[in-house]
Specification:
The complex is a heterodimer of chains A (191) and B (65). Chain A is an alpha+beta fold. Chain A has helices at 52-67, 88-92, 113-119, 152-162, 169-183, and strands at 6-7, 18-32, 35-48, 79-87, 126-129, 140-143, 148-151, 163-167. Classes of the chains: A alpha+beta (191), B alpha+beta (65).
């Protein structure tokens, strides 16, 4: 199994492959009879998978506008696409979403053919990440069925405190490529 | 809950916790003789959680009453 190369240095801009901790996904806000209810899901770790150049131009555009307020905000992004990281141990037992009251499949062990395929990134739906020792994240799995967006301004606000590391270019490009392939799949009717 | 069942649960929790701590030790390359405080082992135990916040809306006019 290949260890994912990462860098712990934080750049000024948000980059594809950045991993952040404690990122919240807002589910809904509703108001009834003067009571406001907000529901959100807090994810321990997420990886940014927005397109790399989009993120770079967004940052550049924001900088340019500070100097020249007359410039358009044509390159501004409103949100960034993120994919949650699930603890591999919890994942293989099907328990990683138990706090959301979701039971996932638990019939794969790491020794099974399918489990080995997950670990070797041979199943399009999953991406297994083994981190080097200097990063304190256990082995994790990305499940490309799960992703959400977060306001890019919120991400900029929390990045100093919540940034963990960034996945090195070749590795993040492979993840991005596999994610794009998975979400672009077409299911044809059987009959 | 009968005592035996309660003991079994305690055993399972202890076994699970010790298993996870061993995995963390291996991952962080912590020698066996060193202890890890369970509350510092935050990352392997965390899962996505739903948080629901409920708040009462107070209008400005209510405040002045």
């Amino acid at each position: 199994m290949i260890v994912t190369r990462v860098s712990k240095s934080r750049s000024k801009s948000i980059r594809q492959g950045d991993i952040y901790r404690n990122i919240e996904c807002l589910e809904y806000i509703r108001e009834e009879k003067g009571i406001l209810e907000i529901s959100k899901i807090s994810y321990p770790y997420v990886m940014v998978l927005s397109q790399a150049c989009d993120l770079r131009y967004d940052y550049q555009n924001r900088k340019d506008i500070e100097i020249n307020p007359g410039k358009t905000q044509d390159k501004h992004l409103i949100s960034a696409l993120v994919v949650p990281l699930f603890n591999a141990g919890q994942f293989i037992r099907g328990e990683h979403l138990s706090e959301l009251k979701l039971r996932m499949r638990s019939d794969m062990g790491w020794d099974s053919t399918e489990g080995k395929k997950v670990m070797n990134n041979q199943l399009p739906r999953f991406h297994y990440l083994k981190f080097p020792n200097e990063v304190n994240i256990v082995d994790s799995v990305l499940d490309f069925k799960h992703f959400f967006t977060i306001s890019i301004e919120v991400l900029y606000r929390v990045r100093r405190k919540n940034f963990v590391c960034t996945v090195s270019p070749l590795f993040r490009e492979e993840i991005s490529d596999r994610f794009a392939f998975y979400v672009a799949r077409i299911g044809l009717p059987e009959s | 809950m009968d005592e035996r069942k309660s003991d079994n649960i305690a055993d399972v929790i202890e076994k699970e916790t010790s298993h996870m701590l061993s995995a963390v030790k291996a991952k962080l390359d912590v020698p066996d003789y060193m202890e890890i405080e369970p509350d510092r082992v935050f990352h392997p135990l965390l899962k996505p959680k739903r948080i629901i916040i409920r708040a009462t809306i107070i209008h400005d006019s209510d405040k002045s009453k």
